[in-house]
Amino acid sequence: MELKIRAGILTVSDKASRGEREDRSGPALRELIEAAGAEAVRTAIVPDDQEEIRAVLMAWSNEGLDLVLTTGGTGLSPRDWTPEATKSVLDRETPGISEAIRAAGLGKTRTAMLSRAVSGIRKSTLIINFPGSERSVREGLAAVIDVLPHAVEVLRGAAGDCAKK
Fold it and tell me: Which residue did the predictor score with more confidence, 153 or 165?
């Protein structure tokens, strides 16, 4: 990533928020985006609570972060509410990103189709949900990381004529 992207990484996990389990997926996201040249300026761990998730997503997008990556809370468990919290703050969805992440996961495991992760735009911030395992965030981010600089350029209004690319 040549463009300096300011990112936030939000881990959604009851157990990790209570210190009962080590968060490995959040640090993996940070490692990967920083290796690509982005800067993780915010990180947080919250429980599987819609209002807490919403509050962080709104605060970080209000702050003007370019990118917010969430991990966890995207499955079928009764406590998995990350997609609903995310949808409630989005101005527009970006389904192609979520579809690409799921497709990458399906190449590895059939259970990837159970992910309810979403992605979209709030103000000029791109928000992307990832499942909660380290492996799934590594595989999912690898599927989309090359398009993130262009997405951020477009959201900033700095991209040229997209139709010519």
Answer: 153
